[in-house]
Amino acid sequence: MKKIEHIGIAVHNLKAANQLFEKLLNTKPYKEETVDGEKVRTSFFMLGDVKIELLEATAPDSPIAKHLDKRGPGIHHIAFHVDDINHEIERLEQEGFRVLNKTPKDGADNKRIAFLHPSDTGKVLVELCEEKSAKP
Ligand code: ZN
């Protein structure tokens, strides 16, 4: 794992959260994107080379809706940049971590992503993400 790529924050209302984080960070989101597969709408702020990802549910059965029901808004996951996600999944499984989706899926911001089981990572939801353009 090379660095923290982004920190994901679950929000009830993306518009209101964008305004709050614009004020807090003194910068505007550089993109908004809906990820249909994950049933989320996201916005991204760039801070140096780390991003903040705000996540709003787009359906009641979205993972973000479930998170909000259980725990309310707040930090949802930490995403680590990896060069080769398949290799990293294999390595982590050998170390005993459960990977929630062994086949990487499409994430926001041109990424291939996989999540680890939070029970194996101290209850921190960990996302691996690989830049899609890295592998044509
Ligand atoms: Zn993420």
Structure notes:
- The protein is an alpha+beta fold and 136 residues long.
- Helices cover 23% and strands 38% of the residues.
- It contains three helices and eight strands.
- It has an eight-stranded mixed β-sheet with strand order 2-3-4-1-5-8-7-6.
- The longest helix has 12 residues, at 14-25.
- Zinc ion (ZN) binds at residues 6, 8, 53, 77, 79, 127.
Strand order in the sheet with the most strands:
2-3-4-1-5-8-7-6
Main β-sheet description: 8 strands, mixed
What is the straight-line distance between the termini? Answer: 21 Å
- Structural class, by secondary structure, is alpha+beta
The level of helicity is 10-25%
Overall pLDDT, averaged?
95
* Overall strand count: 8
Number of helices: 3
Bound molecules: zinc ion
Task: State the shape.
Answer: globular
Radius of gyration, in Å, reads 15 Å
Order of helices and strands: EHEEEHEHEEE
Which spans of ≥5 residues are poorly predicted at pLDDT below 50?
A: none
In terms of DSSP E residues, the strand content is: 35-45%
